[in-house]
Amino acid sequence: MSWRTGLGVVLLVAAIVSGWSAWHMRERSEPAADTGQRSDYVLRDFELVMLGKDGVESVRLRAPELQRSREDESLAIVQPLFLMPGEDGGWQLASDRGWVDAEGSVAKLDGNVKGDSAPGNPTPTTFRTDRLELLPDQHLARTDDRVTLTQPGIMQTGVGFQANLQTRQYQFLSQVKTRYEPSPRR
Length: 186
Fold this sequence. Notes:
Elements: H1 3-27, E1 39-51, E2 57-69, E3 75-78, E4 81-84, E5 91-94, E6 97-100, E7 107-117, E8 126-135, E9 140-151, E10 154-164, E11 169-180
Antiparallel strand pairs: 1-2, 2-3, 2-4, 3-6, 4-5, 5-7, 6-7, 7-8, 8-9, 9-10, 10-11
């Protein structure tokens, strides 16, 4: 066998292998297009101050991550901490996840929602629930879920809750139970 015949056999085998490879690659489907919602922007480790219509601070927001939706301009927030000003220092509201509409008029907190009166408040108050809707312009927090409210000497639970965070007025809507825990005498 001459060197030309050997070269021809090698080239023939290479052509068959490359043809088989091209045919095999042609049968693979193209990767699926990303249909997930994309963000306009992402903020990480930030603090955001929102002003009311009168120009006064209505809420301050701190979180490790925020994503703004391109479609509806809403905000998806990871572990938000909302600081609401009010009488006697205001409130701290935290949760696992948060969502704010495009106008900033409604915030929804979801997962392990914790509401705590600001440190130094003369009547320390906390409430716990799974979901909470926050209306910053009205200083209103509300939910249809079970809530536990704790103040010195008293613990209340109920289903459905509404609180004016500025005036500190609370209202349970149903299934209310109250337990008094007197403070020890000194």
